[in-house]
TrEMBL record:
Annotated gene: nuoF
Cofactors that this protein relies on: [4Fe-4S] cluster; FMN
Catalytic activity reported: a quinone + NADH + 5 H(+)(in) = a quinol + NAD(+) + 4 H(+)(out)
Protein name in UniProt: NADH-quinone oxidoreductase subunit F
Entry's Gene Ontology molecular function annotations: NADH dehydrogenase (quinone) (non-electrogenic) activity
Species of provenance: Pseudomonas retamae
SMART domains for the chain: NADH_4Fe-4S (SM00928)
Length: 451
């Protein structure tokens, strides 16, 4: 799969006015290093922020622009920044970039880090100025070895140019930046689990409150933002709030552009920077090119494995958080997956739930025991050994592991696709239930959870 932001037949003309995240990309897919980045107006926004704006002005600009987190939760970035303490006596604060991109079917942050590493560094530099943080960490998925190499080179280039380190741009402001590769756990995408891992602890989510803005890394105020979120900051500072808001389509409540993609058996799988508010149908037909010859679209997920399945008739939904919510699921990361008509939904869900069960941190009982239970039931149904009541048990688990029932959002995200698959494709699950004559009485049928 090619990591590009091109449209079909390369007909999309990217420019700074319409594609703030990707207009600097090279056609050959190679990384944009410092000299080329600065020739393409790189670090101009940072210079503006340091010379012409105080910290409060930067925060207010990001808040007014309506920038929301691009990692899946969609929390307003300016509001999150505003939670950091204003007490000048607190001189140790941290900025963390969540680059632990382990959501299946999602690869948007990888493209930014591999091909535009300085865009992320500039976004973090401006953010650090706004938050008065003196040290930053990019917590990177361990498997992203190319991204690690490119980010470390870009950090060294920025240091040599006086854009990181001491007295940046003659402002008296100091900011150090480090690339930290993780050990490979999906749960590190949760910000407090990420913080624990960075400290060398087990990657379990923390109880909130206190929130990281008050008590984060090593007990100090900390702000955690996603890669794509931070990469939006330079354009907002450089070109202003009104321009940024104008990028989104009419009807969208989310502002700016979004990296969106499609995987699966589509003709043109890939990644594109598109305005919030485009429809799923535009993404699927105009950019991904529809299904390959010989395949039909059976279902699709709008934003990673932790979002609910939708049907082909839902493709007219607008791609923004509220638009996808209207058809019953979440925008997530914005990278969709097409499920073709050759796929058995029970097998697909069994594979997904095995992943989520394996990646559970094991801290809370519903997630630790409930997800393996769902896997055992799905395996039995997949093999034609399902028993009467198994589907109802699965639906019960969807409820028991839903929002507010577990310590973090891992389990709710894990069972959302399961609930939607049963809703839309229940006959496929029923086909795996053994005849009543072959059924084992429920009380005589042991269920060992967590094994």
């Amino acid at each position: 799969m090619t990591l590009t932001s091109f449209g079909p037949a390369n007909r999309i003309q990217r420019s700074a006015e319409t594609h703030p995240l990707t207009w600097r990309l090279r056609d050959d897919g190679e990384a944009v290093w410092l000299d080329e980045y600065q020739a393409k107006n790189g670090y101009a926004a940072a210079r503006k922020a340091f010379a012409d704006m105080d910290q409060d002005a930067i925060v207010q600009t990001v808040k007014d622009a309506g920038l929301k987190g691009r990692g899946g939760a969609g929390f307003p970035t300016g509001v999150k920044w505003g939670l950091m303490p204003k007490d000048e006596s607190i001189n140790i604060r941290y900025l963390l970039c969540n680059a632990d991109e382990m959501e299946p079917n999602t690869w948007k942050d990888r493209m930014l880090m591999e091909q535009l590493p300085h865009l992320l560094i500039e976004g973090m530099l401006i953010s650090a100025r706004a938050l008065k943080t003196y040290r930053g960490y990019i917590f990177l998925r361990g498997e992203y070895t190319t991204a690690a190499k490119h980010l470390n080179r870009a950090v060294e280039e920025a240091k040599a140019a006086g854009l990181l380190g001491k007295n940046i741009l003659g402002s008296g402001f100091d900011f150090e930046l480090f690339v930290h590769t993780g050990a490979g756990r999906y749960i590190c995408g949760e910000e407090t689990a990420l913080i624990n891992s960075l400290e060398g602890r087990r990657a379990n989510p923390r109880s909130k409150p206190p929130f990281p803005a008050a008590v984060g890394v090593w007990g100090k105020p900390t702000c955690v933002n996603n890669v794509e979120t931070l990469c939006n900051v330079p354009a907002i500072i450089a070109d202003g709030v009104d321009w940024y808001k104008s990028l989104a389509r009419e009807g969208s409540e989310d502002m700016g552009t979004k990296l969106m993609g499609f995987s699966g058996k589509v003709k043109n799988p890939g990644l594109w920077e598109l305005p919030f508010g485009v429809t799923g149908r535009e993404l699927f037909e105009d950019y991904a090119g529809g299904m390959r010859d010989g395949f039909k679209l059976k279902a699709w997920q709008p934003g990673g494995a932790g979002t609910g399945f939708l049907l082909p008739e839902h493709l007219d939904a607008q791609m923004y958080a509220g638009g996808i919510a209207k058809v019953g699921t979440r925008m997530g990361t914005g990278l969709a997956m097409a499920v073709d008509d050759s796929v058995n939904m029970v097998s697909l869900l069994r594979n997904m739930e095995q992943f989520f069960a394996r990646e559970s941190c094991g801290f809370c009982t519903p997630c630790r025991d409930g997800l393996p239970w769902s896997v055992k039931l799905l395996m039995a149904i997949e093999e034609g050994r399902g028993q009467p009541g198994d589907i109802e048990t699965l639906l019960g688990l969807v409820g028991f592991l839903g929002p507010g029932k577990t310590f973090c959002a891992h389990a709710p995200g894990a069972v959302e696709p399961l609930g939607s698959a049963i809703k839309y494709f229940r006959p496929e699950f029923e086909a795996g239930i053994a005849p009543v004559s072959a059924a084992v009485p429920p009380l005589a049928r042991p269920i060992v959870v967590g094994a």
